[in-house]
Amino acid sequence: MDTPARLSDEGEGAPRTILDVRGLKTYFYTDDGVVKAVDGVDFSVREGEVFGLVGESGCGKSVTALSILRLVDSPGETVDGTVTFDGESLLELPEDDMNKLRGSRMSIIFQQPISSLNPVFSVGDQVAEVLQLHEGLGKDEAWIKAVDLLDQVGFPDAESRANAFPHEMSGGQAQRVMIAIALALKPSLLIADEPTTALDVTIQAQILDLLRDLSRRWKTAVILITHDLGVIAEMVDRVAVMYAGRIVELSNVRELFKTPKHPYTVGLMESIPVLGQVKDRLNVIPGSVPNLINLPPGCRFAPRCRPRVENGLEICIQVEPDLEPLAAGHLASCWLYQDHDEV
Amino acid sequence: MVGGVLPPTETSNPTWTVEFADVRTYVARRLLQAIPTLLGVTIFSFALTRLAPGDPVQLMTFDPKMTVKSREILRHQLCLDRTTVEQYFIWLLGSQECNTRGLIRGDFGDSLYDKRPALDMILERVPATLELTGTALLIGILIGLGIGIYSAAKHGTLFDSLSRIFAVIGQAIPTFWLGLIMILVFAVILRWLPVGGRYTLSIEGTKNFFDHLKHLMMPAFVLALFWIAILSRYMRTEMLEVIRQDYMRAARAKGVPKRKVYFRHGARNALIPFITILGPAIAGLLSGAVIVERIFSWPGMGRLAIDAVFQRDFPLVMATVMIGAVLVIGGNLLSDILYGAVDPRIRLN
């Protein structure tokens, strides 16, 4: 399955790859059965780019992110695949080295900024902690640097706000603190897992601006996880669409919006309301996401797929398609575009 | 500055500093509130001593040669011939005739038997009781916390199951029985530890630290066992709750090693509700000490209290109750102040 040709989502003359994920599988062993939350995900992120990971709730976006950082807790377990970050194979790294890497070369921010901050420590302490850990700074030096970082993420009175506790902050402020922590050591990759979902719309734009500015300034690549296609359109360079634990389409953002290929992506695009267009009902994708314990054989989207019925494709419900290139840098896993022997 | 200045809706909230003065006024207010509590304690316990059967004068004059007349003289001298209400106010406010200045002037009255101020007799015993209960509390907290955190971190494992069984046993074993069995095993059969007392009496009157420790070990452990069991269960529950919190994962994402995440980020949060149980624990230890001191001949307040009750030594009983009440109120206040100190979301006002 995993042939070198699969790396062809790298366009020509592209910058170096910072992260390469191949065949990643993370399963959760629950009492009801094995939940295949991430079931064979391939993608790579280039140095300094903003890479989008989009899909509906429960499709495995967050688990993918946590698997890359090896933060999946029991009963979850990454059972297969490789994650290569800056030449290092993360899934084989000793835990000590992984601790050194987390928060310094690769970091993550989460959807719930307030609950992601420890309620009993001041925010200044929490920014300083990451500096003490990775830069070996003393308490006072780390504090000074933490105040400086808080200033850079947009606190006008950073010096006094550093003493504040998380419960004294708004969601937007807390997310700024999380960004300060995540970017404190200028990592080469930041994973932003739905960073604005829990925030007010007006604050969302500010946080996204801040993320974009800082990542550009410090040449940090960003994996932006979201279910919001608007955010994708505005922020990212390339995007992968996930469905039921797999990537179904991967392309640069312009092409994805202009010519979506996979029926699921097409369905997503059609379900967005368009300004000025009057519709009684938005288009919806019929059916619902399959149970990740008892996945249907063949393509996971097949039971909901209209083009499959229209084209009378039988293979879709029997064999799972691979993610194959359709054009330079545009991949999709769909039998509509792939050669197959009809069974 | 990148990302623009924050809009006015996101400006700072000025209430985040704790003034030391706040804590002082808080303590002062709590102490004022303690006065009615203590007054209630005096009324209830005074009534109980007088309602209980038994008469100190009868006990003191258990002598066939004693006449009814001289018994009545003694009763009058001790002011025990007044009504209960009168006696209460004499005890509380003082009376020249009855030779007491009253509780409000700091006079707890004299022991009926020893004819010494009851307060002096108690204060002689308080250090021994504090030593015993303090050690037991320390053992209870350290071992209880350790077991609790560890079984939460390893929940579902053999250690976790064993700690659960231990907790059930620890809570179920009666103190007096465990005390006697331990004396039998460690003092009588193995002869490792002394049977009782606070230290070995010597003619020179010198005190040896290790000798002292050997005397303290067994009673402190017996007193602590129940609290090890309770506190370990409590801490385990709190810790399991904390482990699921987002900030624990966020701390790991910062590169904090797993053990440090548990002890620095986790335990600090789990301690917050844990501290609320310390007040009741202090009260529980003080009442448990009454039995343990008796079994191990520990010269503390508890033993004094039991003897006073059996002898119907009313002033001494009242004095031990009052000092006990003050210690319990103090323990609760301490746990509330600690509560505010570890949780920045709680402000003492």
What would you note in describing this structure?
The complex is a heterodimer of chains A (343) and B (349). Chain A is an alpha/beta fold and 343 residues long. Chain A contains eleven helices and twelve strands. Chain A has two domains: 15-115 and 186-337, P-loop containing nucleotide triphosphate hydrolases (Rossmann fold), CATH 3.40.50; 118-168, no CATH class. In chain A, helix 3 crosses helix 4 (139-152), helix 4 (139-152) crosses helix 6 (171-183) and helix 6 packs parallel to helix 7 (201-217). Residues 1-10 of chain A have low confidence and may be disordered. Chain B has 349 residues and is mostly helical. Chain B is 69% helix and 0% strand. Chain B has helices at residues 20-51, 56-60, 68-77, 84-93, 118-153, 158-172, 175-189, 209-243, 246-253, 258-276, 278-295, 301-310, 314-342. Chain B starts with 19 loop residues before the first helix and ends in a 7-residue tail after the last helix. Classes of the chains: A alpha/beta (343), B mainly alpha (349). The A-B interface holds A 69, 71, 73, 95-96, 99-104, 107-108, 110, 112, 115-122, 129-130, 133-134, 151-157, 160-161, 163-165, 167-168, 170, 172-173, 176, 178, 181, 202-203, 206, 209-210, 213-214, 217 and B 1-7, 9-10, 12-13, 15-17, 245-247, 249-258, 265, 268-269, 272, 342-345.
